[in-house]
């Protein structure tokens, strides 16, 4: 029989008390979050700041915490969170290196990278062998997942690396590359801002995801408030999921996808992608 005052019992009790204390300490506070510009998810010019901005604000609001977003280049958001100038940064995927430096929240939303291509090429794929002989545009310092890495390592595709997503879309239109992996909603927003409707009709995407990545808030691990803010956010996100508000926000965003996808080339792919799920985040920091 384990004595109620055993070392293990005391350790667990102290841990739970500290979590509660950290959570209470953050109530009524303001969390400062550094982020980059990623329309339409994180967009200071959009109503409500975009889907992720609204989701993060509402999750923290359930715990009586206000949010201040500071928009800076992505690399600066990461560096300033690492140095403690921001409490957190939004949003990032888990990597072993980042897990050593930061605390990750529960996942917010699944981002599916798809392959954009010229409509007239009639491209479709079921395995990376279908990419053989094609040129794939990549943006410097981005992570595209195991399928793209494997296709490059096997010599199936020829990588063409540039410094921006817009440059890759321009090369796709000019016929200098054949494929470009990108989140479909971000891709559509970028194309809509850059090109006219007739040009948009020339580009589409295959709805099979080339990569599925969950994105998170990252908190400065060395901050005294990091654990409390992370616990508060995870609790708030769980509340939004349980009361149905999370699904309301997702449904509103996905409906906007279809209503905004005015070109015939985008609507079928977006509709199929929406049906694939998953929509509810797993209850663990880095799935």
From TrEMBL:
The keyword 4Fe-4S does not apply. InterPro entries: Solute-binding_3/MltF_N. The keyword Membrane does not apply. It comes from the Bacteria. Keywords: Signal. Residues 30-261 form the Solute-binding protein family 3/N-terminal domain. Belongs to the bacterial solute-binding protein 3 family. PANTHER family: ABC TRANSPORTER SUBSTRATE-BINDING PROTEIN, MEMBRANE-BOUND LYTIC MUREIN TRANSGLYCOSYLASE F. This is Extracellular solute-binding protein.
């Amino acid at each position: 029989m384990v004595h109620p005052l055993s070392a293990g019992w005391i350790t667990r009790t102290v841990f739970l008390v500290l979590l509660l204390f950290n959570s209470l300490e953050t109530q009524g506070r303001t969390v400062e979050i550094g982020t980059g510009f990623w329309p339409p998810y994180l967009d200071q010019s959009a109503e409500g700041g975009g889907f992720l901005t609204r989701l993060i604000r509402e999750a923290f609001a359930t715990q009586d915490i206000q949010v201040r977003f500071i928009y800076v280049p992505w690399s600066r958001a990461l560096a300033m969170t690492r140095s403690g100038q921001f409490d957190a940064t939004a949003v990032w995927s888990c990597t072993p290196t980042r897990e050593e430096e930061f605390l990750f929240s529960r996942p917010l939303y699944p981002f599916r990278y798809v392959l954009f291509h010229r409509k007239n090429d009639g491209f479709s794929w079921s395995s990376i062998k279908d990419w053989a002989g094609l040129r794939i545009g990549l943006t410097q310092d981005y992570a595209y997942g195991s399928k793209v890495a494997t296709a490059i390592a096997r010599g199936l595709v020829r990588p063409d690396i540039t410094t921006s997503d817009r440059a890759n879309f321009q090369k796709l239109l000019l016929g200098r590359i054949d494929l470009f992996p990108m989140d479909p909603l971000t891709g559509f927003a970028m194309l809509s801002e850059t090109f006219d409707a007739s040009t948009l009709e020339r580009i589409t995407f295959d709805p099979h995801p080339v990569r599925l990545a969950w994105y998170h808030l990252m908190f400065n691990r060395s901050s005294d408030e990091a654990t409390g803010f992370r616990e508060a956010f995870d609790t708030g996100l769980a509340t939004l999921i349980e009361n149905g508000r999370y699904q309301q926000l997702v449904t509103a965003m996905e409906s906007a996808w279809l209503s905004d996808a005015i070109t015939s080339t985008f609507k079928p792919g977006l509709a199929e992608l929406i049906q694939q799920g998953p929509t509810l985040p797993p209850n663990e920091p880095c799935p």
